[in-house]
Design goal:
Layout (H helix, E strand, L loop, with lengths): L4 H14 L13 E6 L14 H16 L3 E3 L9 H10 L3 H19 L14 H15 L1 E4 L4 E4 H11 L16 H6 L2 H9 L4 E11 L4 E3 L4 E2 L2 E2 L7 E10 L5 H7 L7 H11 L1 E11 L5 E6 L10 E4 L4 H5 L6 H13 L2 H6 L7 E8 L6 E6 L11 E4 L5 H10 L7 E2 L17 E2 L10 H14 L3 E7 L4 E2 L12 E4 L2 E4 L33 E2 L2 E2 L7 H5 L2 H4 L12 H7 L2 E6 L7 H14 L9 E6 L3 E16 L12 H10 L3 E3 L10 E10 L4 E2 L2 E2 L1 H7 L7 E3 L8 E5 L11 H8 L1 H10 L7 E2 L5 H14 L15 H19 L3 H17 L5 H11 L4 H10 L23 E8 L2 E9 L4 H10 L4 H4 L4 E7 L3 E6 L1
Parallel strand pairs: 1-2, 1-24, 12-14, 24-25, 26-33, 27-31, 34-37
Antiparallel strand pairs: 3-4, 5-6, 5-9, 7-8, 9-19, 10-11, 10-13, 10-18, 12-15, 13-14, 16-17, 20-21, 22-23, 26-27, 26-28, 26-32, 29-30, 34-35, 36-37
Helix pairs in contact: 1-28, 3-4, 22-23, 23-24, 24-26, 25-26, 25-27, 27-28
The protein binds one RNA strand through helix 10, strand 11, strand 15, helix 14 and strand 33.
Length: 954
RNA sequence: GCCCGGGUGGCGGAAUUGGUAGACGCGCUGGACUCAAAAUCCAGUGUCCCUUAAAGACGUGCGGGUUCGAUUCCCGCCCCGGGUACCA
C-alpha cells in the first residue's frame, strides 16, 4: 500500500473536527502550558508559504507538550480591524466587514489544510462587539487611572480627586503631562470643567494638544512606531508634525518598568536590545540657568553635568516657549524669520539634512551657574522640543553637534576633559566618556564618573537642579481619524470627555456606506446616523488604532465567551500567562511594547496575574522567495560570449532578433552553438509555479504571458533553464509559493516538516521547493517500514540491540531538540533513523510504535493513520511521549581517533574506563603507531573520554 | 555614526564548557531495475597533487596570538544582514 497522503490528511482533519480533538478545558489534574501565535491580520492575498512557519513551529511544540502530559492552550484568532480593509473600502465601496469576513474564511481554509491543533472554539476576532467590548472596557479603566510614581503602579483617579480636595497637589508624585501646583482651596474653587482639565493631566488615557504625526494621504495620525524616516511604515506616505488634540496613552509612565521587566524575560538578546534602545533610558540632571537681567530661569537636561565648565552657550528648540520669551527687541525680526522657517520644515527634511547647521541668536544671555560667565542663548532646530526640557547647555568641546554649531557661528570652544591623547578640541569635539577633568575649578583632576556625581551633588545642594532619568519612549497616540476600528466609549460634556457607563458597552460600530471623512473634515463616523449623541451629548468620532485590539487578546483566549469580565477568575488563575509566544520581530517596537504596557496596567489593577504577559518569545525568521528569471534579448552584437551572465546565443539568432524584432528568450545555459554573440538582455520574472527544478514550462509560460506567445526560445537540448535570485516573497515578483499548492502536491505533513527542515527557526532563509523531495521521501520511507509486504504489517519480534540503539538515539535527540526549538536537526534525526531502520528491514512494533508517537508533532496526519493501524483507538494526541533509555546509548568501548600533536593518525578501540597509562600502552602496541612514534618519546597522553586520544611527543 | 546579529562545500545548513569540520537534505556523477521514462534502490561527491588507490598538503571572511589541539577563546581588520538616529 502506497502512502496516499491526500486521503489520510482529509480523513484525520475531518476526525479532529468531528471529535473536537483539540478542544481544551481547565483541568486541575494537569499542569497547564500556554502556546500562543501572533494572530494574523487577514489580508486579501491569503497566506503564502512563509506565513505558516511560526504557526507550524508552535504547533509542533504544543503537540509535543501535550504528549509530555501538559494541558496545552493553543488558540488562534484574527486581528481584524485595520487600515488596508478600509482603504479597500474607500476604493471599491465594499464594506470592510464583508471583505474582512471573506478574508478570514480564506485564512481558515488554508490553516485547516495544514493540520494545526488550534482550539477553534476559542477563536476571537477583534472587530466583533463581544470582543471589543473589553477593549473599550480597558480604555475606560485607563481613563479612570493615574500613575503613582511613588508606589510604581496605577491608581484610581478618584483617589487623586480626594487627595486634591484635602491637600491640593502638594507631595504628589504622579506621571503627568506638565507639573501643576495648587492648593486644596484652589481645587475646591474650580468648576467641574476646570477640574476635568486638571485630571486630564494625570489620566493614563488622556486627551491632549500635542505635536502628532499627521499623514495627509491617509487622513489620519500615526503612532511613532508606525512612522519610519518621516514616512508611514506601511504605505510610505509622507508624515508631517502637526499640533492636534488627540487621545494618548501614558506609556511613558511605565518606561522604567518596561525596561527593567526585560531582564525577567526569555527573549532573544537582540530583541531585548531593540526595546532597550526604543525605551532609551539616560541618566543625567536637570539644571536651572539664570538669564541675565530677567526673572525667568531656563531648565536644561544633560547626561554630562561634568562638562558644565565647558558650557559656552545655550540652545533652545524652536518650539520651546522660551524661544520667543527670551527674544530681545533687536533680534525679534531675525527670530521670527527663523521660527517661520523651522515650522515649515517637515520631519523628513530635518532628518535627511542633519548636517545642515541653522540657528538664530535670541539676544539674551544666560549665566553659567559654575563659571558665572554670561553665555548667549540661541535657537536651533537641532534641539528637539519633545525630549528632555527642549533646551540644552552646549558643550562644543565635547559634543559633535554643539561643536559643529559653535564652528558655524564662531562661538568659543573650551576643553574640560583630557583623555591623554592630546587632541585639539578646536578641530574636532572630543566625545570622551572617560578621562580627567581640566579647566573645571573644583573638579580638576577628577575622573568623569566622579565629576558627574559631584556636580549633581553640588547642583542639588544649591537648589538649582537635581539628578534625573530621562526616557526616549513617548506616549502613544491613540486616536485614528478612520472608520474601521473600535469606537471610543466616550461622549463630550462641556467639551470635556466622559466615559460611557459600563452597562452601555459594547458601543457598537455603526454601519455606514461612505468611508471618507465628512465634508466638514470629521472622521467617517460623523456620517453615521443616530451615532452622534448619547443622552443628548456628542460621541467621540475617532476610533482606536490597530494595536488596541491586539494588546490583550491573549487574556481573552483564556475565557473568550465570558460576558461578565475580560477574563474570569478561575480561567485567569489556571492559565496565568503565555508560556511561549511565537511571532515576527517586526513587532518589537509596536505590539510587543503596547502589550507589555497594557498587561502591566491590568496587572496593577488586578486583571492580569503577572506583570509580564509573554515569558518566552521566539521570533521566527522570514522566508524569502526564490525568483526565477528568463532572459529577454534586447540588442545584439558580434563579439565574445558574455561569461558573467551565462547567456549564450548564436550570432544567427541574435541577428534574427535584431532584424525582425522577434522576441527572443534565452535559457540560462543557452544552446551549444558554434558562433556566439554577446548580447544585452532584460531579466524577466517568471512565475515560479511554471518552473520545476529550474526548468521552464514553455507552453505554460506562453499562456501566462501572451505577449511572448510568438517568442523564440533559445534552449539547451530542448530544455529551458531559468536563472534565479533570492528576493522577498511578493506577488509582484511572481515568486510566491502558496501552501495550498505544496499541500496538493506533497501533503501537509511534508510541508510542515520541510518548513522546519529549511533551517533554524529564528533565521531568515529562502524557500526552495526543489529541496522538498527529501522530506517527502523520508515520509514515504517511514510509511514503507510498515508496508514492506504491501499491506500494513508490524512484527511482534524482539528488536535487536542495534535497532534499540537507533530508536533510543533518535528519541533522545528529538526530545533534546524539542526543548531547544531546534526543529531542523530533529527532522534530520528522523531521516537518519528511517535510513537505518530501512537498511535493517526493521518492521518491529516495539521500535516503530514509539517513533510514530515521537513523529506525531511534526507529521500528525500520517502518525494518526499509523497509530490507528497499530490497533489503537482514538487519537495519537492522547499518547505519551516515549522515554529514551540511556542503557541503549552507552557503549563500553569507543573507537577513538588518535592524534599525534593534534594530527589525527589512526583510530583505536579503547574502553571508556581505561586509564591514560593503559591507553599509552595500547597506542605503543598499535602497529600503525610505530611509524609515528619512531625516534620520539611520549611526553603525555591526553584522553577526552568518548571523544579523542591525543599523544604529545617530544 | 551608534547598537545587535552573522560570515562553514555548487546550495540550505550540522557541529562550539576547545577534541575526527562539512551531520541531514538538495544538486551533481556513476551503477542497478526498465523496451523506455518516471519512481525506487546502491555507490561516490570540500580543494589540490594523482591514471587510480594509498599516503600527503590545504581548508570554517582576512591577518596575528594562546594551546598538544581553535569554526569555537583573545587582539586587529574586511564584508553582509537587521535595528536605530540631531534623544544632549
Amino acid at each position: 500500500m502506497e502512502y496516499h497522503f491526500k486521503e489520510i490528511e482529509q480523513k484525520w482533519q475531518r476526525y479532529w473536527q468531528e471529535n473536537d480533538t483539540y478542544r481544551v478545558e481547565i483541568n486541575h489534574d494537569k499542569p497547564k502550558y500556554y502556546v500562543l501565535d501572533m494572530f494574523p491580520y487577514p489580508s486579501g492575498a491569503g497566506l503564502h508559504a512563509g506565513h505558516p512557519l511560526g504557526y507550524i513551529a508552535s504547533d509542533i511544540y504544543a503537540r509535543y507538550k501535550t504528549l509530555k502530559g501538559f494541558n496545552v492552550l493553543h488558540p488562534m484568532g484574527y486581528d481584524a480591524y485595520g487600515l488596508p480593509a478600509e482603504q479597500y473600502a474607500i476604493r471599491t465601496g465594499q464594506h470592510p466587514a464583508i471583505t474582512t469576513a471573506r478574508n478570514i474564511e480564506r485564512y481558515r481554509e488554508q490553516m485547516d489544510k495544514i493540520g494545526f491543533s488550534f482550539d477553534w472554539s476559542r477563536e476571537v476576532r477583534t472587530c466583533e462587539p463581544a470582543y471589543y467590548k473589553w477593549t473599550q472596557w480597558t480604555f475606560i479603566q485607563l481613563f479612570n487611572s493615574y500613575y503613582a510614581r511613588d508606589e510604581q503602579r496605577a491608581r484610581p483617579v478618584e483617589e487623586l480627586e480626594r487627595r486634591f480636595a484635602t491637600s491640593g497637589s502638594s507631595g504628589l508624585d504622579a506621571a503627568c503631562t506638565v507639573e501643576l501646583a495648587f492648593t486644596a482651596e484652589e481645587w475646591k474653587a474650580k468648576t467641574w470643567r476646570e477640574r476635568q482639565e486638571v485630571l486630564m493631566n494625570y489620566r493614563l488615557a488622556y486627551l491632549s494638544d500635542t505635536l502628532v504625526n499627521w499623514c495627509p494621504l491617509l487622513g489620519t495620525v500615526l503612532a511613532n512606531d508606525e512612522v519610519r524616516e518621516g514616512l508611514s511604515l506601511r504605505e510610505g506616505y509622507p508624515v508631517v508634525q502637526k499640533k492636534m488634540r488627540q487621545w494618548l496613552l501614558r506609556v511613558s509612565a511605565y518606561a522604567g518598568r518596561l525596561l527593567d521587566g526585560l531582564e525577567t524575560l526569555e527573549w532573544s538578546e537582540s530583541l531585548k536590545e531593540v526595546q532597550r534602545n526604543w525605551i532609551g533610558r539616560s541618566r543625567g540632571a536637570d539644571i536651572l540657568f539664570e538669564i541675565a537681567g530677567r526673572e525667568e530661569r531656563v531648565e536644561i537636561f544633560t547626561t554630562r553635568p561634568d562638562t558644565i565648565f565647558g558650557v559656552t552657550f545655550m540652545v533652545l528648540a524652536p518650539e520651546s516657549p522660551y524661544a520667543s520669551l527670551l527674544t530681545t527687541a533687536e533680534e525679534a525680526a531675525n527670530v521670527r524669520e527663523y521660527l517661520a522657517y523651522a515650522a515649515k520644515r517637515t520631519e523628513r527634511e530635518r532628518q535627511t539634512e542633519v548636517k545642515r547647521v541653522t540657528g538664530v541668536f535670541t539676544g539674551s544671555l544666560a549665566i553659567n551657574p559654575f563659571t558665572g560667565e554670561s553665555i548667549p542663548v540661541w535657537i536651533s532646530e537641532y534641539v528637539l522640543s519633545g525630549y528632555g526640557t527642549g533646551a540644552i547647555m552646549a558643550v562644543p568641546g565635547h559634543d559633535a553637534r554643539d561643536h559643529a554649531f559653535a564652528r558655524h557661528f564662531g562661538l568659543p570652544i573650551v576643553q574640560v576633559i583630557d583623555d591623554g591623547e592630546g587632541r585639539d578640541v578646536q578641530e574636532a569635539s572630543l566625545d570622551a566618556k572617560s578621562g580627567r577633568l581640566v579647566n573645571s575649578g573644583f573638579l580638576d583632576g577628577q575622573p568623569v564618573t566622579e565629576a558627574i556625581r559631584r556636580v549633581i551633588d553640588e547642583v542639588e545642594r544649591r537648589g538649582i537642579g537635581k539628578g534625573k532619568v530621562n526616557y526616549r519612549l513617548r506616549d502613544a497616540i491613540f486616536s485614528r481619524q478612520r472608520y474601521w476600528g473600535e469606537p471610543f466609549p466616550v461622549y463630550y460634556k462641556e467639551g470635556m470627555p466622559c466615559p460611557l457607563d459600563e452597562s452601555l458597552l459594547p458601543l457598537e460600530l455603526p454601519a455606514i456606506d461612505t468611508f471618507l471623512p465628512t465634508e466638514t473634515g470629521e472622521p467617517p463616523l460623523g456620517r453615521a446616523r443616530g451615532w452622534t449623541t448619547v443622552e443628548g451629548y456628542p460621541l467621540e468620532l475617532n476610533t482606536m488604532p490597530g494595536f488596541a485590539g491586539s494588546s490583550a487578546y491573549y487574556l481573552r483566549y483564556m475565557d473568550p465567551r465570558n460576558d461578565e469580565a475580560l477574563v474570569g477568575d478561575e480561567a485567569l488563575e489556571y492559565w496565568d500567562s503565555v508560556d511561549l509566544y511565537v511571532g515576527g520581530a517586526e513587532h518589537a517596537t509596536g505590539h510587543l511594547i503596547y502589550s507589555r504596557f497594557w498587561n502591566m496596567f491590568l496587572h496593577d489593577t488586578g486583571r492580569a496575574r503577572r506583570p509580564e504577559p509573554f515569558r518566552k518569545l521566539i521570533n521566527q525568521g522570514m522566508i524569502q522567495g526564490r525568483s526565477s528569471f528568463a532572459y529577454r534579448l534586447l540588442t545584439s552584437a558580434d563579439g565574445e560570449q558574455w561569461e558573467a551572465t551565462r547567456v549564450y546565443v548564436s550570432r544567427e539568432i541574435a541577428r534574427e532578433a535584431e532584424q525582425r524584432g522577434v522576441e527572443v528568450l534565452s535559457s540560462r545555459l543557452g544552446e551549444e552553438l558554434a558562433g556566439v554573440a554577446a548580447v544585452s538582455f532584460q531579466e524577466i520574472h517568471v512565475d515560479v509555479n511554471l518552473v520545476k527544478n529550474d526548468l521552464l514550462d514553455m507552453e505554460g509560460f506562453k499562456q501566462w504571458m501572451p505577449e511572448y506567445a510568438g517568442a523564440r526560445f533559445v534552449t539547451d537540448n530542448g530544455k529551458y533553464a531559468c536563472g534565479h535570485g533570492i528576493e522577498k516573497m511578493s506577488k509582484s515578483l511572481f515568486n510566491v509559493v502558496n501552501p495550498d499548492t505544496v499541500i496538493e502536491e506533497y501533503g501537509a505533513d511534508t510541508l510542515r516538516m520541510y518548513e522546519m527542515f529549511l533551517g533554524p527557526l529564528e533565521a531568515s532563509k529562502p524557500w526552495d521547493t526543489r529541496g522538498i523531495d527529501g522530506v517527502f521521501k523520508f515520509l514515504r520511507k517511514f510509511w514503507r517500514l510498515f508496508h514492506a509486504e504491501g499491506d500494513f504489517h508490524a512484527s511482534d519480534a524482539a528488536p535487536t540491540r542495534a535497532e534499540m540503539e537507533t530508536l533510543h538515539k533518535t528519541l533522545k535527540k528529538v526530545e533534546q531538540d524539542m526543548e531547544n526549538f531546534s526543529f531542523n536537526t530533529s527532522v534530520a534525526a528522523f531521516m537518519i533513523c528511517a535510513n537505518e531502520l530501512t537498511a535493517a528491514r526493521c518492521d518491529k512494533r516495539a521500535v516503530l510504535e514509539p517513533l510514530v508517537v515521537a513523529l506525531s508533532p511534526f507529521a500528525p496526519h500520517v502518525a494518526e493513520e499509523l497509530w490507528q493501524k497499530l490497533g489503537h483507538a482514538g487519537s495519537v494526541t492522547r499518547a505519551t511521549f516515549p522515554l529514551w533509555d540511556e542503557k541503549y546509548l552507552v557503549k563500553e568501548e569507543f573507537e577513538y581517533p588518535v592524534s599525534f600533536n593534534g594530527k589525527v593518525r589512526f583510530k583505536l578501540l579503547a574502553a571508556l574506563s581505561a586509564t591514560p597509562a593503559e591507553i599509552e600502552e595500547r597506542v605503543k602496541a598499535a602497529p600503525a603507531a610505530t611509524r609515528w612514534l619512531e625516534g620520539k618519546t611520549i611526553k603525555k597522553v591526553i584522553v577526552v573520554p568518548g571523544k579523542m586520544i591525543n599523544v604529545v611527543s617530544a
